[in-house]
Design brief:
This protein is mostly helical. It has a domain of 111 residues: Alpha Horseshoe (Serine Threonine Protein Phosphatase 5, Tetratricopeptide repeat). 70% of the residues lie in helices and 0% in strands. It has 33 helices and no strands. α8 packs antiparallel against α15 and α27 runs parallel beside α29. The longest helix is centred in the middle third of the chain and has 16 residues.
């Protein structure tokens, strides 16, 4: 069987083709073709679909154009619109992978299991893994249970495909009511723990009245961090209630799971544009497959298709356990598309409807903090901490974020208390050590403790330019100028174009009498300042003044102690 199940692709349209793409001169409408190719490379699926359709109007039998049009429609979540083109393409090239994706998914929706098996057994399917699993499910759809199980076993015996074969075999056994057989597969420990797999296993255990084991399984895998859907499932198990079979309710659900399984396996291993095709087919086959919606949305976000990602997140219904995760994703997609106010509004509504989930308030707080709305962010972090209850180690990041907000609001007492709490929950956390230590340096207090904190942070992250800069600046503050030079030069190596780090190195050079080098670094710092960056901490006016009169006079003008006095000499 030819290995058509490719894991790598480089250009969206070309990667999926079984044919060499023609040059523009070979098509009667090169303008539409080039526009389609350009849109495809940019992952602009709407434009790609439009221009491929225009190109096909002039060259309806061009296999590369047909394939590109099919890929665009699948990526848009509209594979049904590509059926006619797919049929034409398989007539010319029966083993075309992308065309067969559409043909097989349409056959699955029509319960045309004969067509599925004929296509796969003739070696005209999608690839070894997909074909093997779809063939097994099609046999199950025909009522040929033994044949289906044999086909699942054949997949499991293929190199590298054991987990796929066993997982889908377990799902098929659940569908026919053989819970003991499914439990035997899950109990073997051969399958890696995935969220959907754990849900299926818990449902099997509940059907076998093994509720306590199901609770132990959920607790062992997820601990106390349960989303609303998983928490409801656990509550039912504690109450000794049998869980409904949601993992797979039909053969079509099983086939949807095939494409979702492949999409999940491809995540991080193939181009997202290629992986998206499988997630989209899973959505098509099972419209209530929330994980497929989420997976498709993630791929679309990575591809920069934020409007389509928003639509995919919206497909998750409000009563789904993953709704809050989908809404967080939708807010992120809105923010990335430049609609920050809309993103904040989504999160505010979510904070009302899911007020008992701490992560919702944390996400809202982070978004508000990014907009420098520190008062509102603090309120969100307050709600998150209240929802968490007793402080635990993972919550250090929330206290740290709230501390930053207080520090920016000049509420130093509250900021310091939160920094200290973050370190109590996560001792020696380098980000917290660096931020608190640097804050002390800027406030010209607690020098010894500040340096100790920053030195610990550097030990853990020796290649972090910001932390190395903090250490160099701390040594400068306490008058250990020669040591400061070493650290600041290292910081500039790590962050060559950062204006603050270059400015600091200029000050350190000046302190040791290397005046020309100091002026050179200050000029470099000025050249790196982005005038449109509101968060840039380098002060261009101060740097220009240092170039005019030197650091000593600037310190005198500011009423600061001169270098020699600050150095204790």
């Amino acid at each position: 069987m030819p290995q058509r199940f490719a894991l790598k692709s480089t250009i969206f349209a070309a990667a999926l083709c079984a044919f060499a793409l023609p040059g523009a001169a070979e098509t009667p409408n090169p303008g539409a073709y080039l526009a389609a190719r350009s849109a495809a490379i940019a992952n602009d699926f709407e434009k790609s679909a439009t221009y491929y359709a225009k190109a096909l109007a002039f060259d309806s039998k061009n296999p590369a154009l047909m394939e590109g049009a099919i890929a665009a429609q699948i990526s848009l979540g509209k594979s049904s619109k590509a059926v006619a083109i797919a049929r034409l393409l398989v007539d010319a090239a029966p083993d075309n992978q992308i065309a067969n994706m559409v043909i097989l998914s349409e056959a699955a929706k029509a319960e045309n299991y004969d067509l599925i098996l004929e296509t796969i057994d003739a070696d005209h399917g999608v690839g070894p893994l997909v074909d093997g699993l779809l063939g097994a499910w099609a046999a199950a759809g025909q009522g040929q249970v033994n044949d289906a199980l044999a086909r699942f076993d054949a997949v499991a015996e293929s190199p590298g495909l054991k987990n796929f074969g066993l997982y889908h075999k377990a799902l098929a056994l659940i569908l026919v009511g053989d819970f003991e057989g499914a439990a035997e597969i899950f109990d073997s420990g051969a399958l890696p723990p995935t969220r959907r797999g754990i849900i299926a296993q818990a449902e099997v255990l509940s059907q076998l009245d093994r509720h306590d084991e199901a609770v132990e399984l959920i607790d062992a895998i997820f601990g106390g961090q349960l989303d609303p859907g998983m928490q409801a499932m656990r509550d039912q198990l504690v109450a000794k209630e049998a869980l409904p079979r949601s993992a797979v309710r039909s053969v079509q659900d099983g086939m949807a799971e095939v494409f979702f399984s492949v999409a999940s396996a491809l995540d991080g291993e193939a181009d997202d544009a290629y992986s998206l095709l499988y997630a989209r087919i899973a959505e098509e086959l099972r419209p209530d497959h929330t994980d497929a919606h989420l997976q498709a949305a993630v791929f679309l976000e990575r591809l920069g298709q934020y409007d389509l990602a928003v639509e995919a997140y919206r497909a998750v219904p409000r009563d789904a356990g993953a709704f809050y995760a989908a809404e967080q994703g939708r807010a992120d997609a809105l923010r990335r598309s430049g609609r920050e106010d809309a993103a904040i509004e989504v999160l505010k509504q979510l904070a009302i409807s899911h007020a008992d989930i701490p992560a919702v308030h944390v996400t809202l707080g982070d978004s508000l903090r990014a907009q420098e709305k520190y008062d509102a962010a603090i309120e969100s972090y307050d709600r998150a901490i209240e929802a968490y209850g007793e402080p635990e180690a993972p919550q250090w990041a929330v206290y740290f974020a709230r501390a930053i907000c207080h520090e920016r609001m000049k509420n130093w007492d509250q900021a310091e208390a939160d920094f200290r709490m973050a370190l109590e929950l996560q001792p020696d956390q380098p980000q917290v050590l660096n931020y608190l230590g640097y804050s002390y340096l800027e406030m010209q207090t607690n020098y010894e403790e500040a340096l100790e904190m920053i030195e610990k942070a550097v030990q853990q992250r020796p290649n972090d330019g910001y932390i190395t800069d903090s250490l160099g600046w701390g040594l400068y503050r306490v008058g250990r100028y020669d040591e400061a030079v070493v650290q600041m030069e290292r910081a500039v190596e790590l962050m060559a174009v950062d204006p603050v780090v270059n400015d600091h190195l200029g000050d350190v050079y000046w302190a040791v009498g290397r005046y020309r080098e100091a002026e050179f670094q200050w000029r470099r710092a000025l050249s790196f300042i982005d005038p449109e960056d509101s968060q840039n901490e380098a002060d261009p006016d101060r740097i220009r003044r240092k170039l005019e009169v030197g650091l000593d006079k600037v310190l005198a003008e500011e009423g600061a102690a001169p270098l020699k006095v600050a150095n204790g000499n």
